[in-house]
Amino acid sequence: TTKCSTCIFKEPSLLRFMCAELTRGYFLEHDEAKYTERRERVYTCMRIPKELEKLMMFGIFLCLDAFLYVFTLLPLRTLLAFLRLLTMPCCGHSVSRFLQPAQVCDLLKGLIMVLCYFMMHYVDYAMMYHLIRGQSVIKLYIIYNMLEVADRLFSSFGQDILDALYWTATEPKSRKRAHIGVIPHFIMAVFYVFLHAILIMVQASTLNVAFNSHNKSLLTIMMSNNFVEIKGSVFKKFEKNNLFQMSNSDIKERFTNYILLLIVCLRNMEQFSWNSDHLWVLLPDVLMVVTSEVAVDVVKHAFITKFNDITADVSRDFAYTDYSDSVARRMGFIPLPLAVLLIRVVMSSVKIQGALSSVCLLLFYLGMITLKVLNSIVLLGKSCHYVKEAKMEGKLFERPNTSAPKQTPTKPSSEPKMPQPSPFITKQPTPRASTSLPPEPPPVTKETSEAPPEIPPNPVEGSSETPQSPELKHRAPKKDLLEIDRFTICGNRIL
Questions:
Q1: pTM, rounded to two decimals
Q2: From residue 167, how far is each of 160, 164, 182, 183 by CA, in Å?
Q3: pLDDT, tens digit, for every residue of 89-101?
């Protein structure tokens, strides 16, 4: 009787439990903000590929603009500077007074290109290819990883070497000499460009060996190495500045890989006597390399924005609004070594003989100039469109706070102040109609560092600048996106 009464007593409880489990809710409405945020994260990940590729395409076209400049406008500018240098004895002026600083830099760039091109003739590409091909797969995988690290280190230090050379050659002579001279800087720059070109040649040779391997195992291993970037990036804390730097590093890496693929295709087509059927054999491998790069970048940026609560519209907060030659200095992209290697490969792969070949070469050069001009016009138009869309016209002409002259306290006026043009833009020696990165603010001078503390500067929107104490006035100010000027970086905003 006791057992039966217990079963009778538990039966309604069991039914109620089952009924509650089958009909209970999830109480999502009690935490509406939490689940709305998670839905927005999903939408952000879905929008990342489109926004990222828009950013990448704009950055790649900027790199292409700077790269084409080396082949199109730089030779003409160097020729004009050289002709002016030849007429210098007739005028009786010194080099520093007769040549403008931009012309001195053009002469140095042209001389570096010519010397490195002749030095590259002593490097045998075929011997390097067969030397690399004789190594084991694992050894080649390690070599390729070491080359990627070395390329980043060379890009970081190499830009400093080139900038030091240009500044040493154009520095006002009235200042006290604090350098070792132009010739030592020039020798360092020549050796840097030569060694960096050899490094990129070894990268291209390794990629060429992977393309020509029978089982494609080396190519698969090298492409899987890109996914290691996801492990090393997505689980770290990222701010907008860090994401900005990584985006520019990805842009530069992707453009460099496109040039490497072009070099590999040229070398393979030369070996097969320019047979078009072999191009279709190379096309699947080229697509695999490009697809893996795009997939890795999309996954990496999607999870970084998810874990750090960054919106997909962050790419619209970056804008290039400067001249195209600033890309090489701010973006970590140095076109000189890549251009030297490409000229070396093209000259060894394509034989120019006869008048017809010379005419074709001239037409090709005119086509590159046309492409350069059209690319610059398109970039300038897109930049103006995005700047107007973001309502940033006033910020482009605002004078930086750090460069404001010493002023006496005045009563605040209710009249609106007209925006004044940036001093960086007005000091450009050659205002070319192209687009790249935002201008660097002028350095802090003694006059600006001793500004009266009772007039704190009005902080510009989006700036992280804070007033400095007197004992820190000689220290470099804290830099935000507007002032970042190191490896894999650009200016304030990128479109």
A1: 0.73
A2: 10, 5, 9, 13
A3: 665 555 556 788 8
